[in-house]
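User: Is it possible to get a 3D structure for a protein together with its bound compound? The compound here is guanosine-5'-diphosphate. I've pasted both below.
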Amino acid sequence: NLTDRLEKSFKLLKGQGQITEINVAETLKDVRRALLDADVNFKIAKDFTNRVKDKAIGQKVLEAVKPGQMMVKIVHDELAELMGGETVDISLKKSPSVILMSGLQGSGKTTFSGKLANRLKSKQKKNPLLVACDVYRPAAIEQLKVVGESIGVSVYTEEDSKDPVKIARNAIKKAKAEGNDVVIIDTAGRLAIDEQMMQEIEAIKKAIEPDETLFVVDSMTGQDAVNTAKEFNERLNFDGVILTKLDGDTRGGAALSIRTVVNKPIKFVGTGEKMDAIDVFHPSRMSDRILGMGDIVSLVERAQEQFDEEEARKLQKKLAKNQFNFNDFLTQIQQIKKMGNLKDLAAMIPGMRKALNNIDLEDDAFKHIEAIIYSMTPDERNTPALIDGSRRKRIARGSGTDIQEVNRLIKQFGETRKMMKMVSQGGNVRKMASKAQ
Ligand code: GDP
Ligand code: MG
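Assistant: Yes, that's possible. Here is the predicted structure of the complex:
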C-alpha cells in the first residue's frame, strides 16, 4: 500500500519541520511506481512527479501531521487537480437537448445511454428519448429496446433504415412532436479505430449539432484507451469522457492519462451493468483510487483545520518528558470532539474501520470522563499520582459517578500516557490501534 510505503520513506524526516530533497526523491520513486501500476502513461507519471517535487520541497510540515501523510496529501491534491479538480456536468441547452454517444464497440455506449436516460428521468424529471443508430447489428437495436423498457423510457428505431444520419434527424423531429426534452443517440462502434465508423459519427455530429458529444471508454483497456480517446477527439472534438467499468479491478489511471492527453473533462463513470450504476466523476475520489489509499487525505485536512500548531508543539515536549497530565488530557478530549464524529474520524485511518466494529466510540463517550476530571482539584490534575483511595471516593461523589469508573479512568489515563509517549517517539497510528485492542 502506497501510504505505508510513503510513511516508511519519510521516517528519516522525523523531527524535521520540512520536507527535504533527499527524502522526496525516494518517495517519488514509489509514487511513480504506483502511477505506472495504475496504468498512467510513463511520461505523464514522470512530469507529474517532477511537479510534486517542486511543490513538496520546503513545505512546512504541520506538527499534528506526519511528513509522510503531508506528502500523500500533496500528491493526492496534485492528482485531483490534474484530473480537472472539480466535477463537470453535461450541459443541456437546446430544446430538445441532444446527446451523442461515441466510442468503440463494447465500451459501454448502449448501457451508458440507458443509465443517463434513467438518471435524467428520475433526478431531473426529464422525459428522454433513446435513439438506436447502430444500424449494423440487429441485436444492438434489440439491446437498446430492452434497456428502454427496463427504465420506462421510449426508444426510437427504424428497423429497415441503414442511414444513421436520417434516423437521428427523424428521432429529433419525433421528440419535438411528442414532448421529449432530451434525445440520447446511441451509435455503432467498431472493435478498433476504423475510417468508416469515424466518418459516420462525424456525419451524425455535423447533421444534428448535439449539445453534448460524449466519448465512452472502457477503463479496463488501460493505455489503449488513451490512444482511442486521442483519435476520437481529433475527429469529433467531443465535450466529455465517460469512463465505464470502474467496478472492475482497474485502478483508474486511464482517467488521468486521458484527461491529460485530450484535455476534456471526465463527466461520469459507470460502475456496473445495472441502470443505476452511474456516478458523477469526482477527481478527488479518483485520486484516492489511483493512490490506493484510505481516506487519509480528509484526515489530514481535518487535522490541519483543528490542531493549533503551537499547542501541538507544547504537547510534544510534555509527552517526551512524560509530564502529560489530566489537564492535557482534557484539552485533547476537547480537540478530538472539535474534529467531529469520533467514529467517522477514526474510520478514515486505513485499517481502522474493521477494528472499530467492536469498539464503542459514541460522541458522548467522553461525558463521564470530563465530569470526573472536572471534579479533581488543580493539584490532582497536574499530578495524577496524588490521587489515592480517599481522593477517588471524593471525586466519584463529586462527579456523580462511582469509584469503579474513577479507577478505570485513572488506569486508562496511565495507559494513554504510555501510548502518547510511544507516538511522540515515532510510533504510528496503526500501532496505537493494535495496542488499544
Ligand atoms: P457498446 O457496444 O459500446 O454499446 O457497449 P455495451 O453497452 O453493449 O456494453 C458492453 C458490455 O459491457 C455489456 O456486457 C455491458 O453490460 C457491460 N458494461 C457496460 N458498462 C459497464 C460498467 O460500468 N460495468 C460493468 N461491469 N459492465 C459494464
Ligand atoms: Mg451498443
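The chain has three domains: 2-85, 97-281, 308-436. The beta strands are 97-102, 128-133, 154-156, 182-187, 212-218, 240-244, 266-270, 278-280.
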